[in-house]
Design goal:
The complex is a heterodimer of chains A (815) and B (174). With 815 residues, chain A is α/β, with parallel strands linked by helices. Chain A has five domains: 3-93, Roll (Ubiquitin-like (UB roll)), CATH 3.10.20.740; 129-270, ADC-like domains (N-terminal domain of TfIIb), CATH 2.20.25.90; 278-343 and 517-692, 3-Layer(aba) Sandwich (Rossmann fold), CATH 3.40.50; 353-511, 3-Layer(aba) Sandwich (Dimethylsulfoxide Reductase, domain 2); 717-814, Barwin-like endoglucanases (Beta Barrel), CATH 2.40.40. Chain A is globular and about 85 Å long. Chain B has helices at residues 4-15, 24-35, 40-50, 54-61, 83-87, 90-101, 143-158, and strands at residues 75-80, 114-119, 131-133, 136-138. In chain B, α3 (40-50) packs across α4 (54-61). Classes of the chains: A alpha/beta (815), B alpha+beta (174). The complex binds iron/sulfur cluster (SF4) (2 copies) and FE2/S2 (inorganic) cluster (FES) (2 copies).
Chain lengths: 815, 174
């Protein structure tokens, strides 16, 4: 641990720490452009110069390139160093267009800060400035190349950190250009980070262009709820409008970055069509009247003729109050899951995520072998793909066992495996990679129960088994979307077995939605939306309450849903989205988004995180003023601020005392059936990195997984795998207009063998007859997917609900 | 589309190396040789052969002096634009060429014969000022010598001589 002195202050740092970081630990912010903690040092910009007074190499040195050494004496204020930095700034500014007044970076621009702090004010160079043409990079990122200082952060981030290959450094010397071969949408689903990472105004946030300076915004630390990872963000609000999101550093979760789904997934909150007024039978009214009306209607019904549905896009507060209301009133539900399969997968994952196994997203980057089973990271949890890539960069091997044509921004092994065979392949692989030696008790019995190597040993599997055998910190990543719950348990047992074999093994689940973990904790075991809908059709349930749940988006059985809605006598919908079901509600009650109410979300590793309220609510001024000056109406309230937190509305519907203020936890969690929740800290004191919940006792079913027998028989059916896409599947982000061009075409994927046997070629249209509907797709033919399945993207705009789980080959026709 | 022989030859060469990227410059030269310059389509074709994205190849194409992303004349004249030539009359050589050809640096004559470009030191400092014509080097340039070279090239072009190879080190002789 070298001990050094910087500006006469002593500090001890870990070996290998750069001087620029050591200084930061003392609170000394040495100027920097090219250096970034996530990207490391390249020494390209020369602005971090310091003077080494005592040390291995004396004189002016670049602090980002210099390892801290014992006894080193560094000065950041030495005249020579200060002058050096001033000259660097001067020449970096030589070609700069001096257009800060019209630059969106102004106000949070590193170049602006450095120019001012470097003391460069008067331009001395009389020559012409170099200029560049700009490119149209699509709807997310604005390009203004003239402001570039050639720090190379953008291309290092885009290509090396993320692994995308359509933006880089072109040309040479003074003409070096950062962009694409030609204008066009950036391909990376992490492109928005360019706006954060570029220290100048070359790349800026396009959707919020010219909407405000940083100091104009109300900026609040929030949590992304566009998938189950719960990345940390900063939300910027102006004029009652959520306008921009940026990444917020979190060592445990997302590091420095966000994916584009999360960064731009907020537009639903300020959408002009967002319903903000309560309505009874389509007539708008006050909240109090609508609630009173709903309550009096509910009171005329026997409690078990009322059923409640919630969803995993609600905060823990809303879920808990919904559960509490239903429990106290004897209503059915709440159902937080569409069907038993979905509920079972999530509950299994929660139960099996024991303390010693769970790893955070941040820890994934440290793994030396990662086995991804039944998961498609870039589509189901985008930032996981970036974390995996960091592990690969450090030498980790990655094996993906999944039926889909998984695509990731790095080299990996993929064994396309049919869903029912995933368990057997996983078991075989783990068995092959460790020996029976040293195992005893349940671990040994579980080991013995695993299948032995197959006769036809696949070469890739053998290689992966070798890497797994040699690894010390392997991690198993397991999806919960397309797999059977037996596999979810098996993944945990496989990780336990690796632990028994003296490895520091980790387990990482991907859950379907942002608050699936909380939903799984709180959902009563037997309640699911499909059962409730059936009970409506059977006449047992007369009233349906949907709390922030759009069954048209979540329910896989559209026909059942339609029949239930046609029959139900009372439909009460609480939501902040304008959905098909909210439009059909007898009583509609507008709720607050997370940006208005704040709330706790529990991510897929059980990390409860608090997202603070970003503003007080109300309709955007742009909307109330019709893009002009807001109306000169005098009053005390905010226009469009009727929406209430859904939890409070539920409390009123149930006639319970209302939680008086947000964060009054006892009222939400006090009587909760889940004891861990009562131990959550107060929201004001919530730790930055959240708090991990894990089961109190070790799960009872450790080492009890049984492999389902896999049937290898050729079937005359294809199994349909509905698969989430990065863009266009997730509910909230599908309201963001700027992400529309990022959505995939609705293509159906087939393995080459299946396509050939059906006489179908790439690009052909097919029509699939199921029940009484016919759906049409263009076909994409793959070699790197399992045969016997058809992969269909679960896009919001695609009526996938009609597809069912299997399709007979004879029902597939060329269109 | 590249003719089959060229494509087959390049593919065979690429198969022989461990990292196709190693051959990026050779492939770009071969494709440029065929099309005259690297159009966007040619760049994409070359990138596909190498398993690179067009951007990745363009990072190299725009970095190097002898790969052209825009159409060039039959004869590309690279005037040395570095220290020793500066001392020995680079500016007058450049101005003379511009005047005689009635074009500026970076431009191509209307008849499509000549393109003028600057280049950094070509290692001919002992006989500076110097220039390259289709990568053949000419030193100790004077107005008379330049006139002679241009006249010879014009005659050669009129006689319909084959486009001189721009590829390969053997073309660079005194
Ligand atoms: S565009 Fe921005 S990040 Fe990229 S080199 Fe220029 S200043 Fe640096
Ligand atoms: S990975 Fe998930 S949580 Fe993270 S930013 Fe993207 S959508 Fe949000
Ligand atoms: S930050 Fe050190 S050289 Fe750029
Ligand atoms: S400087 Fe012109 S050849 Fe070296």
């Amino acid at each position: 641990m070298p001990k050094l002195t910087i500006d006469d202050r002593e500090i001890e740092v870990a070996g290998g720490t750069k001087v620029i970081e050591a200084a930061a630990r003392l609170g000394i912010m040495i100027p920097r452009f090219c250096y970034h903690p996530a990207l490391g040092s390249v020494g390209a910009c020369r602005v971090c110069a310091v003077k080494v007074l005592e040390g291995p190499v004396k004189g002016v040195q670049m602090s980002c390139m210099l390892d801290a050494a014992d006894g080193m004496q560094v000065s950041t204020t030495d005249r020579e160093a200060v002058e050096f930095r001033r000259y660097v700034i001067e020449w970096l500014m030589m070609n700069h267009p001096h257009d800060c007044p019209v630059c969106d970076e102004g106000g949070h621009c590193l170049l602006q800060d450095m120019t001012v702090s470097g003391g460069h004010g008067i331009r001395r160079f009389p020559g012409k400035k170099r200029t560049y043409p700009d490119q149209d990079l699509g709807p997310l990122v604005q390009h203004e190349m003239n402001r570039c200082i050639h720090c190379y952060r953008c291309t290092r981030f885009y290509q090396q950190f993320c692994g995308y290959r359509d933006l880089g450094a072109l040309s040479i010397g003074n003409r070096t250009y950062f962009g694409r071969v030609a204008s066009g949408r950036l391909e990376s689903p992490f492109s928005g980070n360019l706006s954060d990472i570029c220290p100048t105004g070359v790349f800026t946030d396009k959707p919020s262009r010219y909407f405000g300076r940083r100091w104009d915004y109300q900026r609040t630390p929030t949590i992304c709820i566009n998938c189950s990872l719960g990345c940390h963000a900063v939300t910027s609000v102006r004029y009652r409008q959520v306008a921009r999101q940026e990444a917020r550093m979190s060592a445990a979760v997302n590091g420095w970055f966000l994916c584009d789904r999360g960064r731009y997934g907020f537009f639903y909150a300020s959408l002009p069509g967002r319903p903000r007024q309560a309505a009874v039978k389509g007539e708008t009214t006050t909240m109090d009247e609508a609630i009173a009306h709903a309550r009096s209607r509910l009171e005329t019904l026997p409690p078990d003729a009322i059923a409640v549905n919630g969803s995993a896009r609600s905060s823990l507060e809303v879920l808990a109050m919904t559960e509490r209301a239903a429990r106290l009133k004897g209503w059915r539900g709440p159902a937080f899951f569409a069907d038993a399969g979905a509920a079972h997968n999530v509950k299994t994952a929660i139960a099996r995520l024991e303390e010693g196994l769970a790893v955070s997203l941040g820890e994934i980057g440290q793994a030396d072998f990662i086995l991804v089973v039944g998961a498609d990271p870039i589509n189901e949890a985008p930032m996981l793909a970036l974390a995996l890539r960091q592990a690969v960069q450090k030498g980790a091997g990655i094996l993906v066992l999944d039926p889909r044509p998984v695509c990731l921004p790095f080299g990996f092994m993929h064994v396309p495996t049919a869903p029912e065979a995933l368990g057997a392949v996983l078991g075989r692989l783990v068995k092959k990679s460790i020996g029976p030696a040293g195992l005893d008790g349940p671990a040994a019995r579980f080991y013995a129960s695993l299948p032995d190597e197959p006769a036809t040993g696949q070469e890739v599997l053998a290689r992966a088994a070798g890497l797994l055998a040699a690894s010390r910190r392997p991690v198993i990543v397991c999806g919960t979307g397309i797999v059977a719950s037996a596999l979810v348990g098996l993944a945990a047992d496989a990780a336990l077995l690796l632990t028994a074999a003296q490895k520091k093994a980790g387990l990482f689940y991907i859950l379907p939605e942002a608050n699936s973990f909380a939903s799984g904790l709180l959902a009563p075991p037997e309640s699911t939306t499909d059962r409730i809908l059936k009970a409506v059709v059977d006449g047992d349930v007369k009233a349906l309450v949907f709390v922030e749940n759009d069954p048209f988006a979540t329910s896989p059985d559209r026909e059942l849903l339609e029949r239930a809605l046609a029959k139900v006598e009372l439909l009460v919908v609480l939501d902040y989205l304008d959905t098909p079901v909210s439009r059909r509600a007898h009583v509609f009650l507008p709720t607050q988004t997370l940006y208005e109410s704040g709330g706790i979300f529990i991510n897929q590793e059980g990390r409860a995180q608090y997202s603070a309220a970003a503003f007080a609510g109300g309709a955007p001024i742009l909307e109330t003023g019709g893009s002009d000056h807001p109306p000169r109406v005098y009053g005390t309230g905010l226009p469009g601020a009727d929406p209430q937190p859904a939890g409070q509305i539920m409390a009123q519907l149930a006639g319970e005392p209302m939680a008086s203020e947000i964060g009054a936890r006892p009222e939400y969690f006090g009587g909760s059936t889940v004891s861990e929740l009562a131990e959550l800290p107060d929201v004001e004191a919530f730790p930055e990195e959240g708090q991990r919940l894990s089961p109190k006792n070790l799960p009872a079913d450790r080492f009890k997984s049984v492999l389902p027998p896999s049937s290898a028989a050729e079937s005359d059916e294809l199994e349909i795998i509905l698969t989430e896409r990065t863009f266009g599947s997730e509910d909230l982000s599908s309201y963001s207009a700027c992400l529309e061009t990022r959505e995939d075409e609705p293509l159906a994927g087939l393995h080459r063998r299946d396509a050939e046997s059906l006489g179908i070629r790439e690009g052909d249209g097919i029509a699939i007859r199921t029940g009484n509907t016919t759906l049409e797709f263009a076909v994409r033919v793959y070699d790197n997917m399992a045969s016997g399945v058809m992969v269909v993207p679960r896009l919001q705009r695609l009526p996938w609900q009609g597809l069912g789980k299997r399709v007979r080959r004879q029902d597939i026709r060329k269109a | 589309m590249l003719p089959k022989e060229i494509k087959d030859r390049l593919e065979a060469e690429i198969r022989h190396v461990e990292h196709p990227r190693e051959l990026a410059v050779d492939v770009m030269f071969a494709v440029q040789e065929h099309y005259g310059y690297l159009s966007d389509a040619a760049l994409a074709e070359a990138a596909a052969l190498l398993g690179m994205t067009p951007l990745e190849l363009d990072e190299l194409a725009t970095f190097y002096t002898f790969t052209f992303r825009e159409p060039v004349g039959k004869y590309v004249i690279h005037v040395c634009d570095s220290v020793v030539c500066w001392m020995n009359g680079y500016a007058s050589v450049r101005d003379y060429l511009c005047r005689r050809l009635s074009i500026g640096m970076g431009e191509t004559t209307a008849d499509g014969l000549f393109t003028l470009l600057p280049v950094c030191c070509i290692g001919y400092c002992d006989r500076s000022p110097a220039m390259l014509v289709n990568r053949r080097v000419h030193g100790e340039l004077t107005p008379e010598k330049i006139d002679g070279i241009l006249a010879k090239l014009r005659r050669e072009a009129e006689s319909g001589a084959e486009r001189p190879k721009v590829q390969g080190v053997d073309a660079i002789t005194g």
